[in-house]
Amino acid sequence: MIKIPFKIIFLLHVLVVSSCSSLDVLKENYQNFLSTSSNKFYVVEEGDSIWSISIKLNLDPQLLISNNNLNKPYIIYPDQKLALYKYSNIQPSFNKDYISQWHHPLKVNSKPAKEKDSWLVYKESKGTPIHSIYQGKIVVSGPDIPGYGNLVMISHPYGYLSLYAHCDKIFVEQGDEVGKGAVIAHVGNSEAPHPMLRFQLRKGGQPVSASGINF
């Protein structure tokens, strides 16, 4: 028995169902099929980490880890093909009351500017203490992700991640458990034009809109 490749079956199905005689329409349907299939995988590039990939693609790092059966310390290699978790642009739900209980990342009177809807940028002097907004575990500590300088990333309960970019001195290491309000670093200008803290909150891998964050 001759086996017909799935892609050929798909093309015949499109042609029959849509009664399509136009090659342009057929080509468009085929390209859509390819793009849908291709976003299920990611080919690791030089310098990538599980955390940088999750930020780049807005994925939950824990799901990326489990999908690929990775074990600590989650080492990946260039050209390695990683299975992605059902990619979605849907903004995950989050509990505003829960967030309101968290500690301000800097001083209570520090007012941020919004950047690209999901980042809060605080312009404070170098050396200003940076606090963990809630209890959690340090998953990134240092210049591990290009573009963010010295970065601290903390995993919190209920699928939340907090990111603190462009730090100067960092006082925590990967794997440390920290409490709410703990000093984790100082404001700096690593990979930044001037001293600042770029802060982002994520839920299930997706950035939470800055307009919904009030400390």
Automatic annotation (TrEMBL):
Molecular-function GO terms, alphabetical: metalloendopeptidase activity
InterPro entries attached to this UniProt entry: Cell_wall_metabolism_enzyme (IPR050570), Dup_hybrid_motif (IPR011055), LysM (IPR018392), LysM_dom_sf (IPR036779), M23ase_b-sheet_dom (IPR016047)
SMART domains given in the database record: LysM
Superkingdom in the source lineage: Bacteria
Annotated LysM domain residues: 40-84
Pfam assignment, any one: Peptidase_M23
Matching PROSITE patterns: LYSM (PS51782), PROKAR_LIPOPROTEIN (PS51257)
Gene3D superfamilies attached to this UniProt entry: Glucose Permease (Domain IIA), LysM domain
PANTHER family: MUREIN HYDROLASE ACTIVATOR ENVC, PEPTIDASE-RELATED
This protein's name: LysM peptidoglycan-binding domain-containing protein
Originating organism: SAR86 cluster bacterium
